């Protein structure tokens, strides 16, 4: 009896063959767009001190309350698999004294993240994000540039039916004043609210805008809007962001009810959705977080950035899967019987493969014990341009496209394949 099969944990998946090629194409595109705009790659650890997310993302958020994979290590430290990338990148900015570098410091990442969420299409427990963060500039041009970069990336990746929603949350002071007004409104209508929203009036009243609960939606229709209460400076900042987006021809919809699931935002917030996705329509989003670096123990430093889900990008269009890697030479074995000559032929074939690779060719050899016919069939399947059938002392080199074939001394095979490929170009 075979042992019980073990499956990948719920909400996780393996990335195989063509999917890996599609992701590689996505990564290459992100790299060229972001590095072209001055972003440098950063990779932070997969786990961090739990405190980083509790303080950074906010203890009243769903992420921190319910979705973190937290463990205690052998020394009793509380560690958490990163649920998002902004707090870790801020930590790295502070830890490496990046405030001393010329600002803005621009960093991008493509990494996997972990949230204990109800798994469904487009929502996993381990998922991948491409993200970009810019530190050290309050200029609204940074906001507009950042948003445009994500818009360009989604467009170049062929993500369908994209819409951009945009809002501003103001500074933390105007938000605090607004919070109190909103709380007053929610308390006055508490009986109509969902239990979840009602419980969080004190903790996180803004999340009420996110609720699909009928009574809550009705109460929120008459709720005061933060956008109407921005102070003059924040309102001007937001107007400039909008003007720059207009000039760049980026369509957007101002949506005063836009709420993001993380607490660190100030001023600009935005979200790209795709109507090609189902319920999980958020492809990517972000905003400004001018207080976060300071909150994590660094100097007062403004920040602006976004992250987009790789799985959702791929679901909503995604890049065409990159073509399979071309195989220049497939090294097969002639039928020589199972005696000592077989071992010699195999060693010669291995040498040809190594020599071909050293010469810069992509080469593979037969390793599954196929018959001659089986080997030719396999070479065809993987799209090999040349096939070398190695025998004792001599080798048959076959051009799989031109149909030419010649018998050569084994030592000259790689040379002949190289010559043949050169003639093709
Ligand atoms: P977020 O909105 O939580 O923002 O996530 C960004 C994107 O990650 C979402 O739009 C979605 O595409 C993807 N995503 C989130 N959760 C899942 C999941 N469970 N399964 C699949 N995809 C998912 C942030 O994470 C912020 N750190 C963005 C940011 C960067 N803000 C400023 N800088």
Could you walk me through the main structural features you see in this protein, from its secondary elements to its overall organization?
There is one protein chain. With about 425 residues, this protein is α+β, with helices and mostly antiparallel strands. It has 14 helices and 16 strands. The strands form three sheets. It has an eight-stranded mixed sheet with strand order 1-5-6-11-10-9-7-8, sandwiched between helices. Histidyl-adenosine monophosphate binds near residues 84, 131, 285 and 307.
Summarize the structure.
This protein has 425 residues and is α+β, with helices and mostly antiparallel strands.
Topology:
Elements: H1 17-36, E1 40-41, E2 47-49, H2 50-56, H3 62-66, E3 69-72, E4 78-81, H4 86-95, E5 105-114, E6 126-135, H5 140-156, E7 162-168, H6 172-188, H7 195-199, H8 214-221, H9 232-247, E8 253-254, E9 266-274, E10 282-288, H10 292-295, E11 303-309, H11 310-315, E12 327-333, H12 340-358, E13 363-365, H13 372-381, E14 384-390, E15 394-399, E16 405-409, H14 413-424
Parallel strand pairs: 1-5, 7-8, 12-13, 12-14
Antiparallel strand pairs: 2-4, 3-4, 5-6, 6-11, 7-9, 9-10, 10-11, 14-15, 15-16
Helix pairs in contact: 1-5, 5-9
Bound molecules: histidyl-adenosine monophosphate (HAM).
Histidyl-adenosine monophosphate is lined by residues 84-86, 115, 117, 122-124, 127, 129, 131, 133, 261-262, 282-287, 289, 305-309, 311-312.
């Amino acid at each position: 009896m075979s042992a019980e099969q073990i499956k990948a944990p719920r909400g996780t998946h393996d990335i195989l063959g063509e999917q890996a090629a599609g992701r590689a194409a996505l990564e290459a595109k992100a790299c060229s767009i972001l590095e072209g705009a001055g972003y440098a790659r950063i990779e932070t650890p997969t786990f961090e001190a739990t405190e980083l997310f509790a303080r950074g993302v906010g203890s009243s958020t769903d992420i921190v309350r319910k979705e973190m994979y937290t463990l205690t290590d052998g020394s009793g430290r509380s560690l958490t698999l990163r649920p998002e990338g902004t707090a870790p990148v801020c930590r790295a900015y502070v830890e490496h004294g990046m405030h001393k570098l010329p600002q803005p410091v621009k960093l991008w990442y493509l990494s996997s993240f972990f949230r204990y969420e109800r798994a469904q299409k487009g929502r996993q427990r381990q998922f991948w994000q491409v993200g970009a963060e810019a530190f050290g500039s309050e200029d609204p041009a940074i906001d507009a540039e950042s948003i445009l970069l994500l818009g360009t990336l989604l467009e170049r990746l062929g993500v369908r039916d994209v819409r951009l929603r945009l809002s501003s949350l103001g500074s933390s002071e105007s938000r605090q004043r607004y919070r109190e007004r909103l709380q007053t409104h929610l308390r006055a209508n508490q009986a109509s609210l969902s239990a979840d929203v009602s419980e969080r009036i004190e903790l996180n009243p803004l999340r009420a805008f996110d609720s699909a609960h009928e009574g809550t939606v009705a109460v929120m229709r008459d709720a005061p809007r933060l956008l109407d209460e921005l102070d003059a400076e924040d309102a001007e900042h937001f107007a400039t962001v909008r003007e720059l987006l207009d000039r760049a021809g980026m369509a957007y919809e101002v949506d005063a009810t836009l709420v993001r699931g993380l607490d660190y935002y100030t001023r600009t917030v935005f979200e790209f959705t795709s109507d090609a996705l189902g319920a999980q329509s958020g492809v990517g989003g972000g905003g400004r977080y001018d207080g976060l670096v300071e909150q994590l123990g660094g100097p007062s430093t403004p920040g602006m950035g976004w992250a987009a889900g790789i799985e959702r990008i791929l679901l909503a269009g995604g890049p065409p899967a990159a073509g399979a890697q071309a195989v220049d030479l497939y090294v097969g074995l002639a039928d020589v019987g199972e005696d000592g000559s077989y071992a010699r032929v195999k060693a010669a074939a291995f040498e040809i493969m190594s020599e071909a690779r050293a010469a810069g060719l992509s080469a593979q050899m037969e390793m599954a014990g196929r018959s001659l016919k089986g080997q030719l069939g396999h070479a065809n399947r993987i799209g090999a341009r040349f096939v070398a059938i190695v025998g004792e002392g001599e080798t048959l080199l076959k051009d799989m496209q031109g149909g030419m074939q010649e018998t050569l001394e084994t030592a000259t095979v790689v040379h002949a394949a190289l010559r043949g490929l050169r003639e093709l170009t």
